[in-house]
Every structure is written in C-alpha cells, then in structure tokens.
C-alpha cells in the first residue's frame, strides 16, 4: 500500500510540475519562440494524459475489489472497536472515514474528499449488509428445514 501511495504521489507531483508551467505558457501573450520543440504542445498533451490517469485512478478506486475489501475490513474493525457503544453508527462511520482519509496521498485529497469517501463507505456498507442478510436468511431457512424435519420424525 505504501508503494502505491508513493507512486501516486510521484505521479501527481510530476503532473503539477508539468501542468502549471504549461498552463502559464498557454495563457501568456508572448509570441512563441521556435526552438525546434513545441514545449507548450508537449506539456498540454502531458496534462491531458495526467487527467486521463486521474480518471483511471478514480475509476480504479471506485471499482477495485481490493479497495472495497479494505473498506469492508475497516467497517468490520469499527464494529469491533465500538461494539460496546449503542447507537454508534455515526461514530463508526467517522472512524472509517478518518482512517481512509489518512492513507490517501495529499494531492488525491482534492479528488477524494471526506464526503466522497463517506458515500463510498456507505455503499460498501450497504453491499456488505445485503450479503450478510442473504447469508443469514439461508442459514435460518436451513435451520428451519432441519427443525421441521426433526419435528416430523418425532411425531411419526
């Protein structure tokens, strides 16, 4: 996780180093100097590539099962941590969001705000709850069938 965090931070730093001068050059009114290489165009292409990379990162984190699993684990940890406190839903959610927000590299915090992380964590929580409900319903049905089978055996 630290390696990914480092790579993302370096890519974002590279983006800033490229994008800011490119934007300044594109906005300047100075006549272009022909030095053989059109750095403005190169910088603008690099900026477009960086935007595409950001889009990929957002898409990856939104759909990644590893990231969803990590969020689900944080939710489970919050359940254990606040097990003795009643009506601690907001407290648990705040803990999960704080943990998520603390591991996000600073440049990505612009994209992954606490509100977005909360919406994502809520979505993961609802999916985990739906899955747990299905599994509980299956277990209850199996127990009910077993109980009914034993009841029928004893009445015969």
Topology:
Elements: H1 2-27, H2 39-63, H3 65-81, H4 89-103, H5 114-155
Helix pairs in contact: 1-2, 3-4, 3-5, 4-5
Task: Walk me through the structure.
The protein is built from five helices and no strands. It is elongated. The chain folds into two domains: 1-63; 64-156, no CATH class. Helix content is 80%, strand content 0%. With 156 residues, it is mainly α.
Essential attributes:
single chain; 156 residues; mainly alpha; 2 domains; elongated
Strand tally, please?
A: 0
* Unreliably modeled segments: none
Distance between the termini: 61 Å
Helix content: over 70%
Order of helices and strands: HHHHH
**Overall body shape:** elongated
Main sheet attributes: strand count, strand direction, barrel closure: none
The domain count comes to 2
Helix run count: 5
Structure class: mainly alpha
Q: What percent strand?
A: under 5%
Radius of gyration: 26 Å
Average predicted confidence as pLDDT: 78
Describe the structure in brief.
The chain is built from five helices and no strands.
């Amino acid at each position: 996780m630290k390696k990914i965090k480092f790579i993302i931070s370096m890519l974002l730093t590279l983006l800033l180093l490229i994008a800011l001068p490119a934007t300044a050059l594109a906005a300047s009114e100075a006549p272009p100097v022909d030095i053989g290489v059109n750095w403005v165009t190169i910088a603008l292409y690099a900026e477009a590539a960086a935007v595409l990379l950001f889009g990929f990162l957002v898409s990856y984190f939104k759909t990644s099962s590893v990231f969803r699993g990590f969020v689900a684990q944080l939710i489970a940890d919050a359940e254990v941590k606040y097990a003795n406190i009643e009506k601690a839903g907001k407290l648990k959610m705040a803990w999960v969001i704080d943990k998520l927000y603390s591991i996000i590299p600073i440049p990505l915090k612009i994209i992954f705000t606490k509100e977005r992380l909360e919406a994502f964590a809520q979505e993961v929580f609802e999916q985990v709850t739906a899955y747990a409900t299905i599994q509980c319903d299956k277990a209850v049905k199996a127990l009910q069938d077993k109980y009914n089978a034993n009841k029928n055996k004893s009445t015969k």
